[in-house]
Amino acid sequence: MKRDTELLHIGDTPCDWNGAVNPPVVHASLFCFESLQEYLDTAAGRTQRYVYGRSGNPTTRVLEEKIAFLERTDDALALASGMAAISTALLAYLRSGDHLLVVSCVYGPVRQLCDGMLRQLGVETEYFPCSASADLSAYMRPNTRVIYVESPGSLTFDVQDLRAVARVARAHGAITMIDNTWATPLYQAPIPLGIDLSLHAGTKYIGGHSDLMLGLVAGSAEAMAPVRATARLLGGILAPDDAYLAIRGLRTLPVRMARHQESALKVARWLETRPEVREVLHPGLPSFPGYALAKTQLCGYSGLFGFRLQPRDAAARHRFVDALLDVFSLGYSWGGYESLILPLITHQKDNPALRRALGLDDDTYRISIGLEDPDDLIAALERALATWASA
Ligand SMILES: Cc1ncc(COP(=O)(O)O)c(C=O)c1O
User: Does residue 252 line the site of ligand 1, with CB under 6 A?
Assistant: First the structure.
């Protein structure tokens, strides 16, 4: 059976649900025992069953089984947001005195978590450039506990060498984590490449309709055990209604991703032909520096990419963005059905050296290609570029 077909049915047990093809939403904090013996067996770990809403829910479990299947691994855990997944995974593994290696193009709030809370807890974070991912040996210390990557990066789309990162980490006994949000588990399975934990803001493509916050962590049973234990204590679990929405999102993930991929490549290739455009940052374009590596790790491309216009003044930037807003929306959270434009004018403004190192400038844009007809998106961009060039 093809994986798209399997995904539709993995974890679903209509026979247990009176024949309903979709799982019931189980609103439950409390799960009761049928006998004292069952209570004792459960407490002793002889019986596996639901006991309390914070440690597991049948609706959420369907979602977790589907994610573990997509990630080609044993287990997955659903949490209340992408940041809940990331912070829970990091806190599960890091202790005072540990050294944490993080890729420099990482999602901004992860940097804030590392430089703020984790530092207060005694964890030292060191950032490495994406280009160093092919050999991180020089960065490794005896106390390096975790290596954290985000590939492709969601701002710069930089691709890191996952096999090489995993090899160095294994040799030094460190744990590897990837933010796999950009590719979704459909288009990148990092665990078979050697990465220990794959994390997602399911808020993006897995939800897919811009109406859900969701975090996911997936990995082997062994790698997940500390994450599950930490999640039970931190308590950032997903509500079952949101698990249901995420399951519904997964039903159409393959068809949506195929459309995002095709339309984004069409728009990216069109932008590449335009004289107003200096550069297009899309891992699926041969002109992109990470193209060859991406081909060895990804089996598809999502709809989020970047482009740089020729430098012009602020008035031109305003004309360009505002002219797009009849078809595109202006906003941060991507992966939904609707196309977005985001000028990277404010990103890392308080850290000019990092902003320069990441190649961000006032004429760089992030674009999320939604499910509209790509010809309408290209027509809107063409009109906006004409407005940008005017006056
Ligand atoms: C790449 C990436 N990772 C993680 C997150 C955090 O996800 P959430 O907003 O669901 O906490 C985001 C959110 O924008 C993201 O873009």
Answer: no
Q: Is 181 in the pocket of ligand 1 (CB under 6 A)?
A: yes
Query: Cis omega before residue 152 (within 30°)?
Result: yes
Structural domain count of the chain: 2
- Out of 112, 155, 177, 179, mutate this one to test ligand 1's pocket (max ligand atoms within 8 Å of CB): namely 179
- Atom 9 of ligand 1, residue of closest alpha carbon: 82
332 Cα–ligand 1 center, Å = 10
Position of tokens 């997964």?
250
Q: Which of 217, 249, 281 is the last residue of a domain?
A: 249
In terms of residue numbers, what domain contains 313?
253-389
- Domain co-membership, 213 together with 311: no
Judgement on whether residues 369 and 346 belong to the same structural domain of the protein: yes
What is the value of pTM for the model shown? 0.97
Contacts (Cβ under 8 Å, ≥6 apart) of 282: 157, 264, 265, 268, 288, 301, 305, 306
Q: How far is the CA of 200 from the centre of ligand 1 (A)?
A: 8
- Looking from the CA of residue 153, the nearest atom of ligand 1 is 1
Strand partners, 198: 178, 218
Same domain, 190 and 308: no
Q: What is d(CA 171, CA 163) in angstroms, rounded to the nearest whole number?
A: 12
Per-residue pLDDT of the chain (391 residues; tens, 9 = 90+): 999 999 999 999 999 999 999 999 999 999 999 999 999 999 999 999 999 999 999 999 999 999 999 999 999 999 999 999 999 999 999 999 999 999 999 999 999 999 999 999 999 999 999 999 999 999 999 999 999 999 999 999 999 999 999 999 999 999 999 999 999 999 999 999 999 999 999 999 999 999 999 999 999 999 999 999 999 999 999 999 999 999 999 999 999 999 999 999 999 999 999 999 999 999 999 999 999 999 999 999 999 999 999 999 999 999 999 999 999 999 999 999 999 999 999 988 889 999 999 999 999 999 999 999 999 999 999 999 999 999 7
Cα of 300 to ligand 1 centre, how many Å? 20
The residue out of 210, 230, 249 marking a domain boundary is 249
CATH code of 73's domain: 3.40.640.10
